[in-house]
């Protein structure tokens, strides 16, 4: 784990996990999560890429910038792009989930990425759907603030752990206790959660990437439901659009091999990617 940047608005200090070698690939998590969301696929991707899994500013171990959080998506994108440039990463491949998926698409549209893979990305829902998603995550965050012994006791129980994470993943019974606890603390301690949620209430994706793009949606996503993939298809007709069958909102836990394959096909690390319009 490293942390780099200068804590300025231009180049925020960002914590990250780095593994592997090859063309750079930057991984971006969702709201309230942390870089460890990518652990199930990290080594699979690191076999082909120099992989950096980031804690976005105000999440995980990354501090809130001294000058405050960016006010909009453009500011977030500029900060991530500046951070990558400071590390000498010239137009890395990017992949993201949820909020991170939206950032990945925006980086691609702004010319900062060689390719983008977006897993259940934000930016393709109605205002009502977004309010519901944020309300569900807010309730999860409130529950995460229960006394630590209570949280540990609840998550140690298989049925209760499945109940707690059933909105997040499609197969919560596969989630290890220590992973569930770490994710719960990440959500509880997400200093940027409220500000990012508030700033994102009016966000929609409207960019036009010219690099290879894949949008992949979990068919059992209960946070940003699979029906939102239809709008993504209409706004990104030249992208590759895939269903992640039987996967939830954070598909890396549900089917690591499938998710890694989708990302590697997009980056060119594995044969099989051919962008084509979808009907």
Which ranges are low-confidence, i.e. pLDDT below 50, for 5 or more consecutive residues?
270-279
Number of strands: 8
- Rounded mean pLDDT score: 92
Compute the number of helices. 11
**What summary fits the major beta sheet?**
8 strands, mixed
> What is the C-alpha radius of gyration, as a whole number of Å?
17 Å
Binned, the helix content reads 25-40%
The secondary structure category is alpha/beta
Biggest sheet, spatial arrangement of strands: 1-2-4-3-5-6-7-8
Percent of residues in beta strands? 5-15%
What does this structure look like?
By secondary structure, this protein is of the alpha/beta class. The chain contains eleven helices and eight strands. Helix 1 (39-46) links the parallel strand 3 (24-28) and strand 4. Residues 270-279 have low confidence and may be disordered.
List the helices and strands and how they pair.
Blueprint: E1 2-4, E2 14-19, E3 24-28, H1 39-46, E4 50-54, H2 73-86, E5 93-97, H3 99-109, E6 115-119, H4 127-144, H5 148-156, H6 158-165, H7 177-188, H8 193-199, E7 213-218, H9 229-235, E8 240-244, H10 251-254, H11 256-267
Parallel strand pairs: 3-4, 3-5, 5-6, 6-7, 7-8
Antiparallel strand pairs: 1-2, 2-4
Helix pairs in contact: 1-11, 2-3, 4-7, 5-7
Keywords:
279 residues; globular
Compose a concise summary of this entry.
The chain is built from 11 helices and 8 strands.
